[in-house]
Design a protein that fits this description.
Elements lengths: L20 E5 L4 E4 L4 E3 L4 E2 L5 E2 L9
């Protein structure tokens, strides 16, 4: 799916969120990445196979 060089991380890799945005919809709270992953503003993900990845925010420092 990716035509970038070097190629974007696949949807299966741990760094999948580093892929290029191909369609941004900030008004709706999501973006489609080059690898087919839908990235939501709350850091949740929807993978191309339908798997949902819960939001994963970094812990807040005290």
């Amino acid at each position: 799916m990716c035509s970038h060089y070097p190629a974007c991380p696949s949807a299966d890799s741990l760094d999948r969120e580093r892929s290029h945005v191909v369609s941004a919809h900030p008004d709706q709270g999501w973006s489609l990445l080059c690898n087919g992953v839908v990235l939501f503003d709350d850091t949740g993900l929807l993978l191309p196979d339908g798997t949902v990845v819960a939001p994963h925010r970094a812990p807040v420092a005290a």
